[in-house]
Specification:
Layout lengths: L2 H11 L7 H24 L8 H27 L11 H31 L9 E2 L3 E2 L10 H38 L11 H8 L3
Antiparallel strand pairs: 1-2
């Protein structure tokens, strides 16, 4: 058996050290959209009246996009398990990393879902329906049998939920960035490299 033939099975059996290309693309795309939506939220909350409509429409469109991409990302995660964490990482950091990743999955699903429900329960949905990027109509969440007062209460509940999740997201993003920088500059860069596009390309290149 040639050395090339012998090394091929070993390469196939070797554990991967980076995320898949699909996971990496979705990660950075969703991250960029979330950061854009954070900026939009801080902007349109300072506006009043008609000036708020356009940026709020873009915010809702991006939120729905994040929801759809997040569902795809969950599917990718199920069929492409993440690479193992470095063996030298302390146990508490492994647990913290898994908890933070779980929190992010809950946030990227919970934020757009709570926002969708909040908008759907608002009386303004009849005046300003959700139209993704001004092109694709997006349905409202139905609330059959609720009175106007109940819808008002539901809107306030979803609004508080959306706001609370947003503040949790700010904390999680800051913690995630701080941890990535620590692993990159203090721990040798093994963890951050798992989510870099060029690292994934190197993994797929033949030896």
């Amino acid at each position: 058996m040639t050395s090339a033939a012998a090394s091929a099975p070993s390469r196939l059996r070797a554990p991967h050290t980076t995320y898949s290309q699909a996971a990496i693309i979705l990660h950075w795309l969703i991250a960029g959209l979330i950061l854009t939506n954070i900026g939009l939220a801080w902007w349109f909350t300072q506006l009043k009246g008609p000036a708020e409509v356009a940026p709020l429409g873009v915010h809702k469109s991006i939120g729905v996009t994040v929801l759809l991409l997040s569902l795809i990302r969950v599917g990718v995660r199920l069929f492409n398990p993440p690479p193992p964490l470095p063996h030298h990482m302390p146990a508490w950091e492994r647990i913290a990393a898994r908890c933070l990743h779980t929190m992010f999955y809950l946030l990227i699903l919970g934020l757009p879902l709570s926002g969708w429900a909040m908008v759907s329960a608002s009386p303004l949905i009849r005046v300003h329906p959700t139209v993704l990027y001004g092109v694709v109509p997006w349905p409202a969440v139905p609330f059959p049998g609720l009175s106007s007062d109940q819808l008002h209460d539901a809107h306030r509940l979803f609004e508080r939920t959306h706001s609370t999740l947003a503040w949790i997201a700010y904390f999680a993003i800051a913690l995630h960035v701080a941890a990535a920088l620590k692993h990159q500059f203090l721990d040798g860069g093994e963890v951050l490299g798992r989510m870099l596009p060029w690292a994934a390309r190197r993994r797929e290149e033949p030896a």
